[in-house]
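Case study B.
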Amino acid sequence: MTISDIAKMAGVSSSAVSRYLNNGYVSAKKKEKIKAVIDKTGYVPSRQARMLRTKRTKVVGVIIPKIDSDSISRIVAGISEQLLEDDYQLLLTNTENDYKNELKYLKVFRQDFVDGVILLATAITNEHKKLIKSLKIPVVAIGQKVDFISSIYHDDYGAAYAMTEKVIEKGHRDIAFIGVPEWDVALGINRLNGFKDCLKDNNVPFHPEWNLTGMFDMESGFDNTKKLMEMDKRPEAIFCVTDTIAMGAIHCLNKLQIKIPDDVAVCGIGNGRTATVMEPPLTTVDYFYKSSGIEGAKMLLEKIERPKSPLMSTMLGFELIERESL
Amino acid sequence: MTISDIAKMAGVSSSAVSRYLNNGYVSAKKKEKIKAVIDKTGYVPSRQARMLRTKRTKVVGVIIPKIDSDSISRIVAGISEQLLEDDYQLLLTNTENDYKNELKYLKVFRQDFVDGVILLATAITNEHKKLIKSLKIPVVAIGQKVDFISSIYHDDYGAAYAMTEKVIEKGHRDIAFIGVPEWDVALGINRLNGFKDCLKDNNVPFHPEWNLTGMFDMESGFDNTKKLMEMDKRPEAIFCVTDTIAMGAIHCLNKLQIKIPDDVAVCGIGNGRTATVMEPPLTTVDYFYKSSGIEGAKMLLEKIERPKSPLMSTMLGFELIERESL
DNA sequence: CCACAATATGAAATCGTTTTCATATTCATA
DNA sequence: TATGAATATGAAAACGATTTCATATTGTGG
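Model:
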C-alpha cells in the first residue's frame, strides 16, 4: 500500500492524499473520499519515505551510562513519559559506563537519525564538547550543568549543604564523607563543596583523613565504612554522597553491630526507591528525578521545534527527607 | 554530502561507491580511491535513504511495562549489550503499566519502523495475539512463555518449588504466601503452583487464609505482612513471590520488632540488587535477568536474519541464594 | 463586476540510497 | 585458445513519501 495506490482508489492525485495527511489544501469532497479509502485499507504512510523527504524522524536519542541504576531509570521514565505525550520515540543507547561509547553514540547520532539527543553524562570532556558542537541537532544534558548546551540539573551544592546542616543540627561534629571521583563534577565536586562549606560556616572541622573516595556502588559504601570503623578515632556520622553508597554503609554498620544512628549516623542523597526499607530507613534528599526527565525532554522538544530558542539551564530543587538513620 | 558527491570526487559511479560500502564487486584500485575520498570527507551514508531502499532499519523495538524496576532494567541492560554488539539500536517504549499502551506500541511497530520487537509483557491477551500475528516482523517475548512466538523465560515453577523446599528444610511448616494476581501467568500462577506442589509433596498443609495477593510493589509486601502479623495464628515463614515484595515484608517485620528469621523467616525471588543490604540480607533465587536479555536479543536477531528459523522457547535456570532471612 | 487573495489541484522533481540490467573485462579450465 | 564462470562497471529504475511549480477555481471587498 503506497500513497499512489490510495490516490488511485480515491480518484485523486497522490499530492492530494499527501496534503490530506498533512493538513494542506484539500476540498471537503476529496477529503471524504480519501478518508474512506484510508479507513478501508488501513493505509499507514511509510515512515522511512517520510523521513527521507522531511529530514525529521520523530525520534529522540538518549545516552545513558547505565540502565540498571535507580536514579537513571527514573530519569528515563520521565523522559519516556514526556516523549510519549508528544508522539516522539525514544532511542536508548547504553554506554555501560564506557566513556568511549558515549562519544561513539554521539557520532552515530551525527548521522541524521534522530531529531535530538538527551545526554545523561557524568563528565563532559573537551572531546564531548567538540563532538556536540559538530552535531546539527540539539542536545540537552541532564544531571550536569553544561555551559554550551541547554541543561537541567540538580542543586547538588545546595542539597549537600542542607543535609550537612541537618547533620550538624543533630549534634554531630565528627563527620566523615564518602564521595566519588572529581571527574563527576556534580557528585564529585559540587556535593563535596556543599559539605565543606557548610562545615566551615558552622565552625565544624573538616577531617581530610575521613574524606574517602570510591566508586558509585554499594561496595564502595561498605568498604569505606569498614575503613572508617577500623580507624583509631571513629566519626559520629557518615555523609554518603549517594544513596547507593549509603546503603552499603548501613549494611556494613549493621554487620559490625554498630547502632544507627546512636553510635554512628548515616545519610545519603537521591532518595532511592529502596532507601525506605533500609534498617533503619535512610535519611536522604529527594531530587525529583522523574521531573528532571520530563523537563529535559520538554526542553529538547522545544529546541527541536524552534531551533532558534535560546540556550537555557534549569536547576531543580530538592527536598530533605528525614527518616531514622540520622 | 551524498553518495554521488563522493562518486564524482573519486571519479567513479555512485554504484561503485554503494558497492564499496556494501562489500560488492569493486576493483582494488577503485576501492583505494573511494576510501581516500570517504576518509577525507568523513562521509556517512544517509540512514533514511538506506532504510527506504532496503526496508531494514537496524533498530529493535523493546516494549516494557516500567523502566524503573530492578529486574526489567537488568533485562534491558542485557538486551542493550547484545544489540550494541550486533550494531543494532534499541527503541524503547514504556507502557507505564498500561495495557493499552502495549497494544498501541505494537501497532506503531506494525508500520515498518523496526526490524523486530522484544516484548516484556506481564500478560498476553487474545488481543495481543491477534496484533502480533498481524505483524510482519518477528516478535520475541521475555519473561513469559508464549506459545505462538519465540520466548525466553525463567523457571518460575522450579524456582518456587526449590525455594519452598528450602523453607521446609529449615523446619517451617506454617508458611504464608504473598503473591500477585493471576493475570501475570509467570508470577501469579507458576510460582504459586511451585509453592503449592512442593507443600503437597512434603505433606505440609497449605493455608488458604495465609495466601495473600497484592500488587508488585513494596507496599504490598508491607501491608500484607502486617495483615499476617495481626492474625490470631501467625505463620513462621513468609514466601514472597518477588524480592520487592520481600523487601516490604522485611521492613514491616523490623518495624514490628519481629526477629528475622527466628520469629518469622522471609524469602523472595529475583535477587534484586538491594536484596543483599537488607537487614537481614534476603534469601532469594537469582534469575540471571541480564542473560535473559542477552539471549532474547540473540533470539530476535537470529529471527531477523533468518525469518524461516524455527519458533523456539528457552527456559533459563536459576540459582538459590542463601542469605540470612531464612 | 473587477481585481486580488485564498483555496484547490495534479504533474513532476526531489530526498539519497540500493538494486537491476546490460555489458565489459578478467580468470581458470578443458 | 575457446568457453563459461567470476568479477567489475555505470546508467537508470526503484523505494514512497513531500514539495515545488504552474495553473485553475472560488471567495471577498470596493
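Residues 2-4, 14-15, 18-19, 21-22, 45-54 of chain B lie near DNA strand C (CB under 10 Å from a C1'). The remaining cases will be described in the next quarterly update.
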